[in-house]
Write the structure tokens for this entry.
Amino acid sequence: MKNYTEDILSEISIVLKKISQEEIKGLVDLIQKSNTIVTCGAGKVGMAIRGFSMRLGHFGYKSFHIGDTTLQRSSCRK
């Protein structure tokens, strides 16, 4: 189990090193300026982005995931 954990953390570290601070700041700024955030994805990526959308909701953002029963129709038109 320890080897799997180390492998996963290593892969995450490699990916995070490829993302610049400017890109992160840009995403954060965009999220903070948004009135409504709608995400979508399928498979494992869909599960991850659905979790991200849920966390945004926990932080007080109006966030929905395509396919969720809570998605408001008006959210998709803007």
Observations:
- The two ends are 46 Å apart (CA to CA).
- Residues 1-32 form one domain.
- Helices lie at 2-17, 21-33, 43-58, 73-77.
- The CA atoms of residues 8 and 15 lie 11 Å apart.
